[in-house]
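Slide 14.
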Amino acid sequence: MAAAGAASALSPFEEKLQGQAPPASGAAPAVDGYVLVTSANGVEATKAARQALIQGYDPLDAAIAGVNINELDPNDMSVGYGGVPNEDGIVQLDACVMDGRTLRAGAVGALEGCKTPSKVAKLVMERTDRVFLVGAGAQKFANAHGFPAEDLLTSKTRKIWLYWKERLSGTDDWIEAGREAEDPDIKEFIRKYGNEYFRPQGTIHMSVRSAKGDLVGVTTTSGLYFKMPGRVGDSAVVGAGVYSENGVGSCGSTGRGEANLVTCGSHTVVEFMRQGRSPEEACLLALKRIAEKTHNVPRHRDEKGRPKFNVSFYAVDAKGRTAAAAIWSGAKYVVGDNEGVRTLESAYLYKKGT
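Slide 15: predicted structure.
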């Protein structure tokens, strides 16, 4: 598997941390042996989380600080602020955190008005006797803890949503403007995703093994583009979008959430690692199960009976071995460790074009 060279530029979070003392914790933090694994969009997130670990931050705090980079980036249209909205034009966010040291977890689903749902998910874990808050309840909980209600739509995502809505039907009252498709933002979106399919999904997951061997994970997303209001995919569900357990491993996912939900994918990967499988073997076995269990939904299968969609898993085991795998070839993932941050090719079940 070919690896891209480690990036040398500091992320904004790394620059912020430079020169700061780590949190007071007595002895200097041990940093040898830490490792992070994340999805392909997590290069800057991994830089930030890696630097936080070096500074002595708790591994879960480091992981959340990492994904906050994406959540707060208005140009990342799949996570947090600037995420593509649901079919009503409202951004609804999902996130889950899990601490393998305690098997405690926190999650929020269909959360509106909060740029960093991963932080709210951690508060659910720490400040309630529950695991999962959704919708208006999640928003009230976030507001109660000082998170302001904010408009998460940007001018860019609003234009993209309106363009999608105008093209849904030729018999409703919504019509396209004359040269709307020539708008640079819409043109870029069409170039990247195509004018017909037009419904990608995006997520960021990060799993961390600390130098002490502690395992944690976080997954955060704005979900499927133009989704049904209230739809929650796998990202916020413990055992599907993320699962972490000390002494065994941590795993998270991106891709078609519904396929992963019904197979409890991340938990399945960790269970395979518990049985002694390597992270790559565990990911591929869980993907094979997804591929096999989709046979009853014809619209989701190609002419050879293979899934038309993609799912990716990202895993690290208790030994610090990392891997990622996808249903289809071409996916990438990011690893951070003592040697830096690098992008790698994911393993896969099927090769595109075959």
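Speaker note: The domain at 30-150+199-350 is CATH 3.60.20.30 (Glutamine Phosphoribosylpyrophosphate, subunit 1, domain 1).
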